[in-house]
Structures are given as structure tokens and as C-alpha cells.
Design goal:
This protein has about 90 residues and is mainly alpha-helical. The protein has 3 helices and no strands. The chain has 2 domains: about 40 residues; about 35 residues. Helix 1 crosses helix 2 and helix 2 crosses helix 3.
């Protein structure tokens, strides 16, 4: 009987461990969702700052502002190419 008691105890410990791992996974998912919200909020704040105060942004974040401007120009060129292809 001692053997079966040990097997039963090991099974219970295994179930407890699996339950703990499941809880950890749920918490990690919740944490990741919150981190994504924070990142999205930072992006929205940065975008609003860029649109409302471009001179301030260029003063303190010149390199980043230039990168955004260059990317927007590149997007505009691509959009022109798309329009040209559609017109054909």
C-alpha cells in the first residue's frame, strides 16, 4: 500500500505543479496584454506630439524626427506608384 500512496502523492504533486504552471501562463498573458497597451499608448502620445509640436520634437529628437519624415516621404512615393499602376 505504501507504493500506491507514493504514486498517489506524486500524482497530486504533479497536478498541483501543472495548476501552478497554468496560473503562471495566465498571468504572463495578462502582463503581456498590459505591456502592449502601454506600448500602444506611448506610440499614440509620440504621434500626437509629432503632429502638434513638430518643432519641439525636432529640437529634442532630431534624428528620430528626420527618420519619421523620411519614412513618410517614402510612403508617399509608394502610394504614388500604386496610383500610377491602378491608372494603367
Amino acid at each position: 500500500m505504501a507504493f500506491f500512496d507514493k504514486v498517489k502523492e506524486a500524482g497530486i504533486k504533479g497536478l498541483d505543479k501543472a495548476k501552478d504552471l497554468g496560473e503562471q501562463a495566465k498571468l504572463n498573458v495578462q502582463k503581456e496584454k498590459i505591456q502592449v497597451k502601454i506600448k500602444d499608448t506611448y506610440c499614440e502620445v509620440g504621434k500626437a506630439m509629432f503632429e502638434k509640436y513638430p518643432e519641439l520634437l525636432e529640437q529634442y529628437f532630431a534624428e528620430e524626427a528626420a527618420a519619421v519624415k523620411a519614412a513618410k516621404e517614402e510612403i508617399a512615393k509608394i502610394e504614388e506608384q500604386i496610383v500610377a499602376i491602378k491608372a494603367e
